[in-house]
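Final paragraph of the annual report: two paired records, presented back to back.
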Amino acid sequence: MLSGNVRDKHHQISIEGSIGVFDSGVGGLTVLREIARALPDEDCVYLGDTARLPYGNKSRGTVTKFALQNSAFLVSLGIKFLVIACNTAASAGLAEVKEHFDVPTTGVIKPEAKRAARVTKNKKVGVIGTRSTIASAAYERAIHEHDPGITVIAKPCPLFVPLAEEGWFDDEVTRMVAERYLTDLVGQDVDTLVLGCTHYPLLKKVIAETVGRDVALVDSAIPIAREVRETLGEMNLLRGNGRKRLLTYYVTDDPKIFTRVGESFLGFPLEDVRHVDIAI
């Protein structure tokens, strides 16, 4: 059930033909930001499922259900491309979403894994993510598709998501948690670290300081933006230059916290953040 008439005449023209992006909370804004930079003439609509985060401590079946519900909402708006900007949802439900909806769809794991395989020099790659993402071994499989000789060392870092949602991007508590999580990875000589959750780039400064300058950090935002641009170009779905772009935001809980944290990260006001109830 939708909260409000999202297909009203005022918004329908702008939302239809948009790039749809969803995540469990503010983390997917890291992906939205890069898509907006790479495609400055494209409208984008973002859904943050803030009422049901975090996804990382939920079962695969539950996360897949959430992914299908989020996708159904965005598809109902008439989007032309769907980005699952949530590593947990992509690892659990990408195949099901592609099967259910006739909209070009991508997740964040494969582009990120491809980049990590290219970046590593000593073939030791660390992966951090939610418990669910790490348990799925999705990154190991994706990285080994490019180079089966790479050693992948994976570690769940569940507290990073609530820290990011609180906006504690550069905080002493965040530093303590990062030290606790990442010291072992540094000791195993990884030279590349995959930020396997779209919330984690929000904490990139602290993570980088913890692992040191010799470890390359890889996140999904730029590779995903590149893939969206290339795919839309191949399908002749890119919009022309010179038009005003619209960014529209929906959340499933109170918009106030999302707006505050999102504005702090993006550096510009989030106008017209709307509440929607998508639970069945």
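The closing record of the year follows.
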Amino acid sequence: MSSLEVTWFLLIGVLLTVYAILDGFDLGVGSMYIFAKKDSHRRKLLSSVGPFWDGNEVWLLTGAGAIFAAFPHVYATVFSGFYLAMMLVLFALIFRAVSLEYRNKQDSDSWRKGWDLAFWLGSALPALLLGVALGNVVRGLPLDAQMNFTGNFFTLLNPYALAFGLLGLAMFVTHGAIFAKLRTDGELAQQVAGWASKSWWAYLSLLLVVHVTTVVTEQHLISNFLSVPVLWLVPALGLAMVILIKVYLAKARYGLAFVFSSLAIAFHMATVGAGIFPNMVFAINDPKLSLTISTASSSSLTLMVMLVMALVGMPIVLGYTIWVYRAFAGKVEVDSGY
């Protein structure tokens, strides 16, 4: 393997991690949105993520584009194998975006309730399915010698991947509830603080289930940890960050709770990367057919050109992201846009 291949493996990991942290909180807000009963509370939740959600999704598009450019065989295998699931995610995200813009276009309870349902499904479904997709990639897929996925839609609905999906949903709900607490006040702020504490227990429980299941049943994911024992610090720190979320929720220090929630996501993603490397997609039927960073990568010239483009483009996107968050910082009001 070359240094360029390793660099792109790490860069894609960074892009997807930033996406999980940023879009994770607005998917989380949308996933618990349906439980807010007052219209004023729902409008506040919409306003809390309104300035950010579309910019957050740029990181997902960038990550997918980077996979396409740097590891085209992985892109072809995964996206063709996950075609139905990815279409569900795509349509859910479309309805989510439309619901944000159209919910308050008419003064009608039935109109708003319909778009509220669309926003909730458009948030919860991607949060779940993206986790299921990642769980399948981590666990491995049945592949043939031509790098084609040989399973079907129901192959993807295995217990390990479903647990991964539920973990992602619980993680995003906790992350989103903490963010909503920072952006709201009054009765709604008290409600979302309670939701954060309740979802944290599901988050911790599912994280432990996934970790234990991985060690017991997915031996290929712990081989790197056995070879380099210091890597065990990565999942351990991830677990520590999750525990610190609860510590600072109990102290009502929600800013620090959000920081530790973000760090927890970063360490979880790092754990995934450390477990699968140098594979991009593990072939569960025959490990020799696995897509590694060497067998699935583009040419060195393509990787170098794309790296130059990334080094130019990423600071621009990052700078814009920072500007938006600074410009729209603080508490939201009912009439602040949504």
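The mean pLDDT is 90. This concludes the annual technical report; the extension proposal builds directly on these records.
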